[in-house]
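User: I'm curious whether this sequence folds into something compact or stays loose and floppy. Could you predict its structure so I can see for myself?
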Amino acid sequence: MSIDLAFDRQHIWHPYTSMLAPLPVYPVVSAQGCELTLENGQQLIDGTASWWSAVHGYNHPLLNEAITRQLSKMAHVMFGGITHQPAVTLCQQLLAMVPAGLTKVFLADSGSIAVEVAIKMALQYWQASDKPGKQKLISLRKGYHGDTFAAMAVGDPEDGMHSMFSRMLPQHYFLPAPDCPFNAVFDATSIAPLANLLAAEHQQIAALVLEPIVQGYGGMRFYHPEYLRQARALCDQYQVLLIADEIATGFGRTGRLFACNHANISPDILCVGKALSGGYLTLAATLCSDEVARGISLSEAGGLMHGPTFMANPLACAVASASLSLIAKGDWQQQVAAIEQQLNTELAPCLASAEVKNVRVLGAIGVLEMHQPVDVARLQQRFVELGVWIRPFNNLIYIMPPFIISPAQLAQLTKAMRLVVGLTG
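Assistant: Here's the prediction. I'll summarize afterward.
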């Protein structure tokens, strides 16, 4: 039976699209390794790892085995008053990987919810610490932290995709996006806005929320690790919690296991997701320190006030545990380093295109920043014609492929990127 695209177009909402003028969709019937197979038999090399999550590729035998084995036992059980081995094993693995000082794990069911939980943690902690006035958050412009309301409230209020909701959202503090590129000499003035704001307003600020090193949907911007180091020191100085949103960057994407590792810092609260389950099932986690957990537990509520129905779903935990076992083997280090080297070599010529403003590469992330916003539908069609799946947005053409991608497959992705910006291949 063929996929009913007419029904899809008429009735099914896809992310960030209009039902009056929906963008074209491409029917996928299977996926293997780094390739998606369309209904017509065409195979596309996936340059997005399904929004950065399928780091081990598709249909991985060890992940398939883990989820099948767990399915024979139970697909789901509530986590209220119950525990199970997949959740315990997964949390043991997580705590062995994350930056030092993070000791408690809340298993959420999406990245946005992980951020919501992190914000609740920060607010409850200060209430229990007899500092109820600490209700405000600091975030960075060009940042993105999810689509739910508390997460939207710390996303860029003007250039972000949620600006139309600004009047309904809690009002927080926003600082200029760090203007100190990752590989440049650090500009000490870039941290001044944060230092000045904390000096003046720290008594009402609960936490600084940021994406370490890489600002994702806000523009694929890579900033200097020294900014993160100094932000950590300022949070300590002024008694403000640091929330690191590593949903996109965690588990090796930037060339370090966590982006925080570039600066050798540990946040008070850490959010992870996407690659956590290898792209199989929706799962995320919010981790915190003993100190934060103690404060939350002493708060008026007596516990953390969040409990999703599908929290710690056994299937998701089992496949995530298998995913982390693959990451723990360490193959990703050589894989990501090789991807970075090839991206640097093969995307650098794009600077010769008059359409390209900048080329950026970090770990397994390659970005072409264009002078003007791109026609997503037209460009998407052209990429499919070239045999690749690359999903541009705004003025960015970027790839974040699975770590297992072969040099030949990656070369096909970069060649397609060169072709669409007017180069000859």
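Summary: The chain has two domains: 5-59+330-420, 73-328. The two ends are 38 Å apart (CA to CA).
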